[in-house]
Amino acid sequence: MVAPTEEQWAAAKGVLRYVAGTRHMGILYGKGGRKVVLGYGDANYARCVDTKRSTTGYVFVLHGGAVSWSSKRQPVVA
């Protein structure tokens, strides 16, 4: 970044404050045993009372710790 704006500096400082405030947090992974990836998914069909759209989500777990997850409202009404 050649010439960062004030807004970009504020965003960078916010990220650093977040990292500094959460450095004691983490994901614990068990050791030993089989290396199995578990995946879970779910949806709530048309639960948003305002838009009547569904929310879907998933999580993948390895040795007891989440390695990937997502949750979002669907862009169209089914």
Describe the structure.
A hairpin with a 2-residue loop joins strand 2 and strand 3. This protein has one domain. The protein has one helix and three strands; from the N terminus they run H-E-E-E. The protein is α+β, with helices and mostly antiparallel strands and 78 residues long. 21% of the residues lie in helices and 32% in strands. The radius of gyration is 19 Å and the shape is flat. The longest helix has 16 residues. The mean pLDDT is 87. Strands 1-2-3 form a three-stranded antiparallel β-sheet, with no helix packed on it.
Keywords:
single chain, alpha+beta, 3-stranded antiparallel sheet, 3 strands, 32% strand, flat
The succession of helices and strands, N to C, reads HEEE
Widest β-sheet, arrangement of strands:
1-2-3
Helix content: 10-25%
* Strands, count: 3
Low-confidence stretches: none
How many individual helices? 1
Largest sheet: 3 strands, antiparallel
Quaternary arrangement of the chains shown? single chain
The geometry reads as flat
Q: Please identify the structural class as seen in this structure.
A: alpha+beta
- Summed over residues and divided by their number, the pLDDT gives a mean of 87
Radius of gyration: 19 Å
